[in-house]
Amino acid sequence: MDTPRFTREQVKQAVNDGRDLVDRELRLADSDDDLLDLVVNAILTRLDNPEVDFDGVVEECYLASPATVRSWWHWS
Questions:
Q1: Is the overall model pTM greater than 0.85, yes or no?
Q2: Maximum distance among all alpha carbons in the chain?
Q3: What's 6-71 look like in SS3?
Q4: Burial class (CB in 10 A: 0-12, 13-18, 19+), 57
């Protein structure tokens, strides 16, 4: 059986489409919407670098420190 192969762009599109589907159905608050974006960023960053940790995702994707991002949800 052949293993399916997907381009990075196809994975990115699928992840973002899934994120948007959940957001539309649940009509999330801004903080929840931000959390979905954080998860998408973590998935796509790990696609390129499977070893990256939370701090690395934040440093690559945000103009804020990991502590600041955690504070958005009171996760200090």
A1: yes
A2: 47
A3: CCHHHHHHHHHHHHHHHHHHHCCCHHHHHHHHHHHHHHHHHHHCCCCCHHHHHHHHCCCCHHHHHH
A4: buried
DSSP class of residue 18 equals H
C-alpha to C-alpha distance for 65 and 3, rounded to whole angstroms: 38
- Which residue in the block uniquely carries the two structure tokens 């200090």? 76
* pLDDT tens by residue, 5-63: 899 999 999 999 999 999 999 988 888 999 999 999 999 999 999 999 999 999 999 99
Could you give the CA distance from residue 10 to residue 24 in angstroms, rounded to a whole number? 21
The two tokens of residue 50 are 């499977």
Q: How far is CA 31 from CA 49, 56, 71, in A?
A: 26, 21, 11
| Contacts of the segment 5-11: beta carbons below 8 A, 24+ positions apart | 8/47, 8/48, 11/44, 11/47
